[in-house]
Design goal:
heterodimer, A: four-stranded antiparallel beta sheet, 10 helices, B: alpha/beta, Rossmann fold, 10 strands, 33% helix, binds adenosine-5'-triphosphate, binds magnesium ion
């Protein structure tokens, strides 16, 4: 046990030694890998914050029903009854066209616009609070409502939520795709540095094998080298994400705060950061393993 | 103990470097293989170290048939041998200390233990004051002594040395042979080759002479 631990410690020490022997090359490849990780990670964090911000907005969902302009008060009353009778309506509020206009006039920026208008351009309307927000039920409700005579339009002002969900799914796929592509890039970058490492270490590998080094003695430092490089790049990417978050977040927050929102509040969480670093380390290890297996035979037969 | 029974070695190019070799090296013995250049001395030693394998016949080291050992078995075997290569096989990106330390790193010794053993080995071959030196600054003879230091650093029970005195002047060759004798006195089995038998007069050993892949004496 102690000997095994010691062997691993020495493998790590040799991996670190090789990194320190070529500080520039090491830093460069770590930076390249970090950038490859930063892209999907940054996108994910940004997206996470958008969704978070969106869910903070007032999203009390309701349905607005607008009637045709030429609808009498009596007809409106009949429609109100029908709306109340719908299984999905929890509360129906009548908004008479006069009230709607008065409300509109109160808004300073619109009063100028409305000053010249003699006739009321607004229709009677209803605002409905809902029992269920399930998409299929809502769609059915929209259909039912539109089929009532004199109903002109039905707006469901949580449509944006639907859009957001669609957008979210799109971003999710994008993150996955980018993550996959850039994961491959990490494998490639690490694989290539390991290949170069193996070429420069060729003599040592051959001699070590000649005097009895088992395969694992030769392979371990390369695997640790790859894993370390990946993990360091992961750490760098997380740090960069947090840094960018602080830098950009401050600006965005000031801007969004003026709209009563609170936008950029989260970088990657501790747990997320840890998993990014771990996954990057594993990718580095994998890249090294692939590279080492590819070039092993070449080196073994070259003595 | 190393046993060759009816061993032939034919290289991939078809050249038969050894023919029908039967030879036993008992524990604690010193055996010196001599012969002209190309006689097959290095081939014989490489077969004993499991670096090459017999085309026909068997090579046994400590009663293990090398042809039947798996890769890890060969590794374990080589770790327990001290090997001196004719072309040294030193690492020029490591200093003297680093080269001598390699077998101990492989065996997984601690830093402190490595330091002690490496210095003891370097002392024996007269390179202790050069431990930090770059390999390019070593003379041919010094490189050869470093190679011997690397071979003995792990205190092997069998030492296989291919022309260990080839680049040394008479005085140093004698020192190295003295060193081998002192190892032998504590029980180390020694198989070494040399193209000329000079300097061996004082070494109590068994001589085997090869000629074109055949033992003639
Ligand atoms: N890998 C190889 N492939 C083909 N032929 C080889 C190989 N190694 C050695 N030989 C041939 O086998 C013969 C014996 O070689 P070996 O190296 O054993 O000789 P040696 O006695 O050690 O010679 P020297 O004193 O020059 O070192 C030589 O003719 C050599 O050319
Ligand atoms: Mg030879």
């Amino acid at each position: 046990m102690n000997a095994t631990l010691n062997a691993h410690m020495q493998a790590i020490a040799r991996a670190v030694g090789r990194m320190r022997a070529q500080p520039l090359a090491t830093c460069l490849s770590i930076a390249v890998i970090a950038i490859a990780i930063l892209l999907p990670l940054g996108l994910y964090v940004l997206f996470d914050n958008v969704v978070n911000a969106a869910s903070q907005l007032n999203t009390e969902p309701n349905v607005n029903v607008y009637l045709e302009l030429a609808t009498s008060d009596q007809e409106a009353k009949d429609i109100e009854k029908k709306l109340r009778a719908h299984s999905n309506s929890a509360q129906v509020t009548f908004v008479p066209r006069e009230a709607a206009l008065a409300d509109m006039r109160k808004r300073a920026n619109l009063s100028d616009l409305l000053a010249d208008i003699d006739t009321n351009p607004l229709p009677h309307a209803f605002s409905i609070k809902l029992r269920s927000f399930e998409m299929s039920i809502l769609e059915a409700m929209r259909k039912d409502t539109l089929s009532i005579p004199k109903v002109e339009t039905v707006t469901m002002d949580f449509e944006w939520a639907k859009q957001l969900t669609r957008f979210a799914r799109f971003i999710e796929h994008l993150v996955m795709l980018l993550g996959g592509l850039l994961g491959a890039a990490v494998l490639f970058v690490v694989g290539n540095t390991i290949r170069l490492q193996m070429l420069t270490q060729k003599d040592e590998i051959v001699v070590a094998r000649l005097i009895g080094a088992p395969r694992r003695f030769v392979l371990r430092p390369f695997l640790y080298f790859g894993a370390l490089q990946g993990a360091l790049a992961g750490l760098l990417a997380v740090a960069a994400t947090l840094g960018i978050g602080l830098w950009v977040g401050g600006e965005v927050n000031a801007f969004v705060a003026s709209y009563g929102g609170n936008f950029f509040t989260q970088g990657p969480s501790f747990q997320q950061s840890l998993s990014v670093i771990t996954v990057a380390g594993i990718m580095g290890w994998l890249g090294a393993l692939i590279s080492v297996s590819m070039y092993w035979r070449q080196i073994e037969t070259s003595r | 103990m190393i046993t060759f029974s009816s061993v032939s070695k034919r290289y991939a190019n078809g050249y038969e470097a050894l023919k029908g070799i039967s030879l036993t090296i008992e524990n604690g013995e010193i055996v010196v293989v001599t012969g002209h250049s190309g006689a097959g001395k290095s081939t014989l030693l490489r077969l004993a170290a499991g670096i090459e394998f017999a085309s026909t016949g068997n090579v046994l080291v400590n009663n293990q048939n090398l042809a039947q050992l798996k890769e890890t078995g060969i590794s374990v075997l080589r770790q327990n041998l001290g090997l001196v290569f004719q072309d040294h096989k030193l690492l020029f990106d490591r200093n003297v200390f680093g080269n001598a330390a390699l077998p101990l790193e492989i065996a997984g010794f601690t830093r402190i233990e490595i330091g002690k053993r490496v210095r003891a080995a370097l002392d024996k071959v007269g390179l202790l004051n050069r431990e930090k030196a770059d390999l390019v600054s070593l003379s041919g003879g010094e490189q050869q002594r470093l190679c011997i230091a690397r071979a003995i650093v792990n205190r092997p029970s069998i030492l296989i040395a291919d022309e260990p005195t080839g680049n040394l002047d008479q005085a140093y060759a004698a020192t190295i042979l003295d060193l081998f004798r002192s190892f032998n006195q504590v029980g180390v089995t020694i198989l070494l080759s040399t193209h000329d038998g000079s300097g061996l007069e004082h070494l109590k050993c068994r001589r085997v002479e090869l000629e074109h892949g055949v033992i003639v004496r």
